[in-house]
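Figure 2 data, in text form.
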Amino acid sequence: MKSHQAHYAYLKIQELTKSCRLNGLPVTPQRQAVLEALARRNNHPSADELFEDVKLLIPGISRTTVYRVLETLVKIGVAQKISTHESRARFDADTSRHAHLICVGCGLLIDFNGCEDLDLMRNQRDNHGFHLLDYSIQFTGLCPDCLSGMAPPRTSGTLTSTSNHKEE
């Protein structure tokens, strides 16, 4: 699995290089490090989680730089920002259209396979004359650990880390 993630990270860096050139942006070590850290994870991390990864590679990098780099990566289309019921955004290196499952108990966020054949963009104008550009699908519920009472409890209104959950 690790070699698959390393290969995927390599492909994402190639995509970053191409997208930066198309957008007239330099390919900086910071952009490369943030995207590589994101591509090597499969748990849809927050900016803060990515900052912790990237500062191991670039010790002097600031949290603000990581936030700005993530926004640039989303803007040029090599990463996507996932808005959830949490107060913090999560990020995904997989920019293909796919749905997510979000546990409202512990904050687990995983890819959901099953909506790939759904073509909601076949008509790009809705009944209100709104021109559709994109969409996202998120299903919320409770994961098996939360249903069985095995998930770590929330503390002070914030979600606990999802690192102990196994990604599918």
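Caption note: The first helix runs from residue 2 to 22.
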